[in-house]
Each structure stands twice: as C-alpha cells, then as structure tokens.
C-alpha cells in the first residue's frame, strides 16, 4: 500500500508518494552536484581551452560565481 502525500487538484494528477518525492529530490541534488563539479573544472581550465569552448575570462568568472542551484 502506498501513502499519498499531496493532491494537486488543478492538474488532476494523483498525489505523489514518499518514494517519488525522495526520487525527485535525489535527481535535483545530483543536478546540483554536477553543476558544482562542472564549475570547479571550469575554474581550473586554462585559457586556450576556454577559447576552444567560446568563453572569455569574464564569462568563466560569471559562471563560476553562481551558486550551485543557479542555472
């Protein structure tokens, strides 16, 4: 038996179970971790590689300064 957590009435969708909620949370946290690691690698990237991917120093710094949850 599954426990229903919340009903979204305006969408006429069934309520989410705890398992679905935890799964979605894990997916979001994995995205955040990927962004964090990508920005760490970007910080350490030499200038010639930045040019290869079409970024300059300021664009790199702007991206690196973002919080992990920001796109």
Features of the shown structure:
3 helices; 71 residues; mainly alpha; elongated; YjiS-like
Q: What would you note in describing this structure?
A:
The protein has 71 residues and is mainly alpha-helical. It has a domain at 16-64. The protein has helices spanning 18-44, 47-52, 57-64. The two termini are 38 Å apart.
Radius of gyration: 19 Å
Mean pLDDT over the residues: 88
The computed structural class is mainly alpha
Low-confidence stretches: none
Amount of beta strand:
under 5%
Shape: elongated
Draw up the topology in text:
Layout: H1 18-44, H2 47-52, H3 57-64
Helix pairs in contact: 1-3
In short:
The protein is mainly α. It contains three helices and no strands.
């Amino acid at each position: 038996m599954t426990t229903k957590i919340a009903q979204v009435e305006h969408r006429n969708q069934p309520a989410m179970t705890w398992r679905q909620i935890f799964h979605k949370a894990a997916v979001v946290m994995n995205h955040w971790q990927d962004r964090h690691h990508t920005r760490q690698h970007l910080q350490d990237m030499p200038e010639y590689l930045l040019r290869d991917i079409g970024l300059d120093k300021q664009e790199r710094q702007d991206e690196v300064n973002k919080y992990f949850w920001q796109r």
